[in-house]
Amino acid sequence: MRAYDIILKKRNGEILTKDEIEYMIMGYVDGNIPDYQMAAFLMAIFFKHLNNEERANLTEIMAKSGDMLNLSKIEGKKVDKHSTGGVGDKTTLVVAPIVASLGIPVAKMSGRALGHTGGTIDKLESIPGFRTSLTLDEFFKNVNKYKIAVVGQTANLAPADKKIYALRDATATVDEVSLIASSIMSKKLAGGADAFVLDVKVGSGAFMKDIDSAKELATAMVEIAKSHKKEAVAVLTNMDEPLGTFAGNSLEVLEAINTLKGNGDKKFVELCLTLSAWMCYLAGKDSYEKCHKLAYDSLKHGNALEKFKEFVIAQGGDKNVIENPEKVLPISNKYIEFKAKNDGYISKINTEKVGIACNYLGAGRKKKEDNIDHSVGLEFFKKIGDKVSKGETIVKLYISENSAAEIALELLDEAYIISDEETKKLNIILDIVK
Fold first, then answer.
1. For residue 89, which of 355, 413, 389, 408 has the smallest C-alpha distance?
2. What class of enzyme is it (predicted)?
């Protein structure tokens, strides 16, 4: 078998066998296939694509290139939630305790912020003392005892994906559905869950900018899961505006706690209840409708809040963050405001630019090694469809002495479009793929 022949075969649009895909992927991981041949292989896939069987094989090979987590020591059916990334997306901080409060195990490995999207692990590390690194024994023990644990991904989870993604990033082959779907699902399969709820973001702040491409990605991921005898549901959600009221690490933890206390943004709550209900449904709790009611009651009656407190304490975090989040969380007391330059209605938001603006304040990172500032971020006072008056605050920027505040203001000025005509407010849930 030769790399040249496999590249030529895919370049000509032919279907690759599992052995051929494995030869390319593992040969590259082992250092036997050079960058230039793997780059050619990826470009051939970019233009000729993969069918369902090829996607399933690629996903399995990448998943098995490193550690395969065995969650059998955890009692019950394990359902994982994955988001394709967005601005202000703190759903795990609300969804996980809702689901755990209903007796369903949440054994979650999450990532860090990269690019214009935030990371759950960075947000949790805003809580003083919170440990995102647990031993496997601690991880299993916490899930069995409290029904919830959230930790950072292990270094050896799908290493083939990590190496190939770096090359995709440098060779303009990132945005191809087969490669995106197999990248995401290889890490999900390696994580060991029994079923998956996939939150696929759509819009200006998402990787998939339009509903058709998002639906194609969602369908690909659901099909990959099914091919590996795993259940999956994809929820397509709107990222044409930031999610909720805040973006930034401590600020998003604050919002999550306020939401668990019953004071959440309406659309954010709708999304959290939808995702929670699908997780409960896949866990076999009851019908989707009854699961939605159970999730709603957990939030309404404070059960999810109590579970969040239990979760924070179990992983070493300061329990006082529940009662006094503003005092416990590192939130900057310095701020500036982005204000409307004229009267009108917010008609459009470039959410990606909003996320980049947040990063310029210090809330995100360009490279995985970069440090972040947990105290900075954005507070949103106006969304699409809202009326604004000249001089009215649209966004409040929490800043530090290291924030590039002027650049952030310029980006927000470019991101927000104010028009004379009234604009319809956005729906948060766009479609369901299962």
1. 355
2. transferase
